[in-house]
Design brief:
With 112 residues, the chain is mostly helical. The protein has one domain. Helix content is 60%, strand content 0%. The protein is extended. The N and C termini lie far apart (47 Å).
Length: 112
């Protein structure tokens, strides 16, 4: 996969897993069994994360190997949701980062 496209994998995963899960819930609630196939999206993600953890965790201790799927999932979901949500305050000043204000009663040039 080209370098620029791999950065889109986590947001695509978030949308796919959310849509698949929603389809499965609707399928169960409405009796439309074909929609339950939406569970293939979250199940496929879990399988890929587990396979990646096995492949990349071979040199790690048992505890680290057991934690690796959780680490991967947290990283993917954080990246994907953050990508889709965008930076906080993006409409205010064009930047999501503002300089910290000094505590009250402290002059800015006296802070070391």
């Amino acid at each position: 996969m080209p370098g620029s496209l791999r950065y889109l994998a986590p947001p695509v995963m978030v949308v796919g897993v959310a849509a698949g899960t929603a389809a499965a819930v609707v399928g169960v609630a409405s009796g439309q069994r074909w929609l339950v196939g939406g569970l293939l999206a979250p199940a496929g993600y879990v399988a890929l994360v587990a396979a990646g953890a096995v492949a990349l965790g071979s040199g790690l201790g048992a505890r680290s190997r057991a934690q690796l799927p959780v680490v991967f999932a947290v990283m993917h979901w954080s990246w994907g949701v953050g990508f889709l949500a965008g930076p906080k305050g993006r409409g205010d000043s064009g930047s999501s980062f503002a300089p910290a204000s000094p505590p009250s009663g402290v002059e800015p040039d006296t802070i070391a």
